[in-house]
Amino acid sequence: MQTILSAMCTRYFLAFIICTSSLFSCTTGKKAYSPYRKYPKEALQKDYILLREALEAKHPSLYWYQDKDSIDAFFDRQYLRIGDSMTEQAFAWHIISPLLRQFHCGHTTVGLSKSYSKWAYGKTFSSFPLYLKVWNDSMAVIGNLNRKDSLMTRGTLVTGINGSRNKELIRRMFSYLPTDGFSESINYTRLSSNFPYFHRNIFGLSKTYRVNYIDSAGREKEAILPMFEIKKDSSKEKTAKQKPTKPPRKKIPRAERLTVYRSFEIDSSKQFAVMTVNTFTRGNLRTFFRRSFRTMRKKKIPSLVIDLRSNGGGHVALSTLLTRYVTRERFGVADSIYAVSKDLGRYTKYFRGGWLNNLEMWLIAARRKDGKYHVPYLEKKKFSPKKSNHYNGHVYVLTSGSTFSASSLFCNAVKGQEGIWLVGEETGGGWHGNSGIMIPQFQLPNTGIRVRFPLYRLVQYRHVPKNGSGVMPDIPVETDYRFLLERKDKKMEVARQLILQQQEKQDSVPSNP
Fold first, then answer.
1. Most distant CA pair in the chain: distance in Å?
2. Can you tell me the distance from the alpha carbon of 136 to that of 426, in angstroms, rounded to the nearest whole number?
3. pTM
4. Bridge partners, 398 (sequence order)
5. What does the alpha-carbon distance between residue 209 and residue 225 come to, in Å, rounded to a whole number?
6. Quick check: 354 pLDDT over 70?
7. Measured at the alpha carbon of residue 277, what is the angle toward residues 469 and 458, in degrees to the nearest 5?
């Protein structure tokens, strides 16, 4: 009996070895990803047609700012521009990006495949060498990748690149970038945050760049700048085959990690506090809000600055919670929220978490007489100011083009209330409304390119007319060249001055005898 069992075990063991070796051989034989691979025209056309059909069937706001005929014409035009073969990057940037721009929906964006993201992770790429602050029709140097360049220093005003003047250059770059409505404020922020990245993807690389600039005497000149290139290290090539050792992870305290998402600080004058909220997604915000507002109540802080300049949005529930701490009146989230269908239908398999999205849509929405699938809870619910730790002092909300989505809902809810002012720039998120709530990724089967697009249209509570603007500030603060040179925060400085002026007014009022 033992001999039979031993023989059987040996056979099973040998079979296991053969199977696993074949699996490993298949894995090692798999073709490595290459970003330079060109996809045939037929594969690209199939991806494009599938994307068009999904957008037309499921996107709630395809024709919100342009009529159907105009959108259809652009769909057709981009289809004809698909080349005989294109890389994933070229297809995403030059075919899909300009298409998505036409919808004027800031949540409808394109991203490259997971394989590309893994390949690109940690890499530094050759590029246009200058980081530029971009505003109106102006551009100024804020960084230079060519460190030995002593000509293009911080503050140097640039007037053109490779024969294109600033106005035309910015217009062309904007035509690849999405917006909510017609608010370009977020795109000025995007270009200012990483000009080399956008220039490389839109215009490609050049060995040299002709840059027009203003010299110290106020004269316009032209300089020839070399492309920023990554130089290969021959010593690294010799050890490339060796398995790299990972450096030990430095343990960062949780409190320090959370400051990336939010922070709270009381000024040394004790006259105001600064609450920075960079997202409504992470950062243990419920506890953060409760502790911060409780601290201000106990210490009787008369003014508060809420910095939302880097807040791209997140959970509506957390945006609503912050609103409840400062609002002087009852408010709602939206006058209407609806999807155009009850689920993702035959496109479910292309969406990340497709069946879970279907379940959520089924749970939160109901069909109305207009044929749309509305979210009755957020349309009907009215929220009251918090009773515990509600803040009654003066509030200054700092805004920028990156104030988007759920943070623009906050701005709309508090704007115009007594004792609350928006300070800064027009928000990137639409004032009339935007599309969002659920924003899954749609993956194209041939290229792996991922397109985020929303499933619900939201019209803001007590909405303004649909003119395509973001929420406008009560106290506009534009880019100031002098502050740029001195690396000072003008918006925060303006808020500080307003608080001091308010305090002086209160101090000058005589007390009752």
1. 109
2. 13
3. 0.87
4. 307, 423
5. 5
6. yes
7. 40
